[in-house]
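User: Sequence recovery, please. Input:
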């Protein structure tokens, strides 16, 4: 196999802004992406409505929506209960990724650092899981196992922290993070080139995750219009995102040169911009609307005692101490470390619905449906009218920062998706309006962190965002394809993240007919259609 050409090279940039990629390709900052754009077919991609935080990469891998593969977030309800669990502690994806299906058909595959991907031990080829990752669920491991030792001996550990959230106060703190991310991108490029040289790959996949961390942590330093922008830090450091994107572009250049005449797909699966919304207000909003009631039991009852006691103690700490501990609290809240997570905070005998985790850009609500939930009280025949009234109550809420709506849309999951795991997903999805950025109490003294909202039904609610990120995801992405039979240009229609798995299947002669997505015909040479 050594020396044989790679047939298909799929490269990803995790959570990169498509606007920045295009702008910096145009001004010479990203020359290798610019060359791909000039010689390839490019277009916009869209991740999944309501689920573009936790499902982008699982849906890329399977060609299925969360209703088909079972993953909508990193912490989900145990079916038939009011208790959370971490799906990565079990089977995780309930569908096969395209690389497993290619492997079963005899194709030789290499899969490196695709986010939220479990190790597949029986691949015809190699896999590297979380050598460099933003969301590390499974830890660094490889197939075959000996590859991990070889990578560590030659390249060491990825320089960037696995969990990049932190309390960063000045240029030195941010410089340390950016240096680690740029160094990580350079090392990932070298690693990828070495593995490409083995040759004989039918499909080779590598994803650069460094842009993800940079976007979350340093968007306010990139964007001069952000309320938390610090000109002193950017004067000393430069634009952190620009530096990280340039490092990724340089690594891509080396990989593309090594890949020779391989057909190439470059994908930025979902985007990044400023942090927005008011997810921290959703529980109080639902309580004011009279549809959700928190558990009134004291902290020492057996229903989630550790979490309840911690919440009780947290509310009684002085503000200055809470601020110092906030990064630790935020990490625990987003992805609790224990396999045994506590029950939801609700009184099931009075709550017709309840909020569930789904990320911070899109809130999620599950109906406390009789016959489905353990103590459901909402009759299925009343659910449609209840949802219509709840939607109206949510959409009339005004964001007093803008005078416009706080919530852009309320989506019904079953109207968007179908599949065997639909019943395990949230029922309603709350798209927060991103008209203005929301700050954080952890950045720049808390500027723009407070949100005040009102409506006739809820009165006035207000609170502060205490999560320390200044960048948040967007649905929109970008793709570029180049290779045999493709004509340079711009695809006018958007394509879905669901479409890439079936496209890869067709390109390699292994049709994946049971996907929710469809092959992107414009990326397939005429003799393969």
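Assistant: Recovered sequence (529 residues):
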């Amino acid at each position: 196999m050594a020396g044989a050409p790679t047939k298909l090279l799929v490269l990803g940039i995790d959570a990169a802004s498509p606007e920045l990629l295009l702008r910096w390709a145009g001004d010479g900052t990203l020359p290798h992406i610019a060359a791909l754009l000039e010689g390839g077919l490019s277009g916009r991609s869209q991740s999944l409505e309501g689920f573009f935080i936790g499902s982008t990469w699982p849906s890329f891998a399977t060609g299925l929506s969360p209703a088909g593969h079972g993953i909508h977030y990193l912490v989900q309800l145990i079916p038939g209960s009011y208790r959370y669990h971490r799906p990565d502690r079990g089977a995780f994806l309930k569908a096969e990724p395209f690389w497993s299906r290619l492997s079963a058909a005899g194709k030789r595959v290499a899969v490196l650092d695709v986010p939220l991907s479990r190790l597949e031990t029986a691949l015809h080829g190699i896999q590297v899981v979380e050598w460099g990752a933003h969301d590390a669920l499974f830890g660094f491991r490889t197939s075959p196992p000996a590859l991990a030792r070889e990578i560590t001996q030659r390249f060491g550990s990825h320089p960037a922290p696995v969990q990049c959230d932190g309390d960063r106060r000045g240029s030195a703190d941010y410089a340390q993070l950016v240096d680690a991310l740029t160094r990580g991108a350079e090392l990932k490029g070298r690693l990828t080139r070495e593995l490409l040289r083995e040759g004989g790959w039918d499909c080779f996949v590598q994803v650069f995750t460094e842009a993800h961390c940079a976007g979350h942590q340093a968007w306010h330093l990139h964007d001069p219009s952000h309320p938390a922008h610090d000109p002193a830090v950017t004067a000393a450091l430069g634009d952190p995102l620009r530096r990280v994107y340039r490092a990724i572009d340089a690594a891509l250049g080396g990989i593309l040169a090594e890949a020779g005449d391989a057909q190439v797909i470059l994908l930025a699966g979902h985007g990044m911009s400023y942090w927005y919304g008011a997810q921290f207000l959703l529980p109080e909003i639902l309580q004011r609307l009279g549809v959700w009631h928190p558990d009134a039991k004291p902290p020492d009852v057996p229903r989630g005692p550790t979490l309840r006691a911690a919440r009780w103690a947290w509310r009684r700490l002085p503000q200055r101490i809470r601020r110092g501990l906030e990064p630790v609290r935020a990490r625990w809240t987003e992805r609790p470390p224990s396999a045994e997570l506590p029950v939801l905070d609700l009184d099931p005998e009075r709550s017709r619905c309840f909020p569930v985790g789904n990320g911070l850009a899109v809130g999620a609500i599950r109906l406390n449906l009789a016959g489905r939930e353990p103590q459901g009280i909402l009759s299925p025949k009343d659910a449609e009218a209840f949802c219509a009234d709840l939607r109206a109550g949510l959409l009339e809420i005004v964001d007093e920062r803008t005078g416009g709506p706080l919530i852009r849309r309320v989506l019904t999951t079953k109207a968007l998706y179908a599949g065997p795991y639909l019943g395990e997903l949230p029922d309603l999805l709350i798209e927060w309006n991103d008209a203005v950025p929301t700050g954080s109490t952890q950045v720049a003294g808390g500027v723009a962190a407070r949100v005040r909202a009102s409506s006739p039904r809820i009165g006035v609610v207000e609170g502060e965002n205490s999560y320390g990120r200044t960048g948040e995801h967007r649905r929109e992405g970008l793709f570029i394809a180049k290779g045999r039979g493709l004509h340079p240009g711009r695809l006018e229609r958007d394509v879905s993240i669901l479409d890439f798995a079936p496209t890869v299947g067709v390109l390699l002669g292994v049709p994946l007919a049971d996907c929710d997505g469809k092959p992107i015909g414009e990326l397939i040479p005429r003799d393969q259609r």
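The chain has a mean pLDDT of 91.
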